[in-house]
Amino acid sequence: MSFADIAPQFVRHSRYSGYQGLVKLDEKSHMAGLVYGYTSRPGQYYHDLLRPALQENGKSDWLDDCFELVELAVAPSVRGSGSESLCLISC
Fold it and tell me: Which of 46, 47, 57, 91 stands 20 to 30 A from 13 (CA)?
């Protein structure tokens, strides 16, 4: 999958309520990783997918005010260096 394949998803998601994202650059200013997410709302894929299962367990209120972590990507060259944690903590 190329960036051109997933670019429309990133653009669409960046318009969602509560969107937050972070790109981590390495020492040469190359992208080393990214993380992003947004506020979960009815009508969004995972929100609507999870609601029935959570309702069965009496936990549907979990979706009332939550943040969906959508993507966490780290370049192979920096995996295991702590970049994953830094991306999550910073977002």
Answer: 57
**pLDDT confidence of residue 1:** 53
The helix or strand, by DSSP H or E, that contains position 20, with its residue range, turns out to be strand 20-25
Asked whether residue 22 carries a pLDDT value surpassing 80, the answer given is yes
How many distinct helices (H) and strands (E) make up the chain? Answer: 3, 3
Question: Do the Cβ atoms of 83 and 33 come closer than 8 Å?
Answer: yes
Residue 70's nearest CA partner among 30, 22, 27, 25 is 22
From the list 72, 65, 58, the residue with the least C-alpha distance to 42 is 65
The answer to whether 91 touches 37, Cβ cutoff 8 Å, is yes
Question: If DSSP codes are grouped into helix, strand and coil, which group holds residue 24?
Answer: strand
pTM of the model: 0.74
Provide the token pair at 78: 């920096």
